[in-house]
Amino acid sequence: LLQTRFTSCQALAVRRDIDMSSSVIKLARDAIASQTRWREGDDSDTIEYETCPACYSHVSPRDKLEVMSGCYHRICFTCIRDCVS
């Protein structure tokens, strides 16, 4: 993953007045998606995995990531459950 090449990594909030359809936002989303999603298997039996951005665990489709309401961050069910309890 890209973040393993850095000595530190920090998430920054996006200003509310930025156009969410801008090319900069799209480029950032595509870059994040390329580092957090991958496929395994051959063409007939491909499984898409994701990395949870909260706990960095690898999540299979059966343990799919959920979208948090309001912020649209996708975190795994385990992290959601831990936040609630």
UniProtKB/TrEMBL annotation:
Keyword field: Metal-binding, Zinc, Zinc-finger
List the molecular function annotations (GO) for this entry: zinc ion binding
UniProt-recorded name of the protein: RING-type domain-containing protein
The species this protein belongs to is: Noccaea caerulescens (Alpine penny-cress)
Recorded hits in Gene3D superfamilies, A to Z, give:
Cysteine Rich Protein
Give the range the annotation lists for the signal sequence. Answer: none
Enumerate the InterPro entries for this protein: Znf_RING_CS (IPR017907)
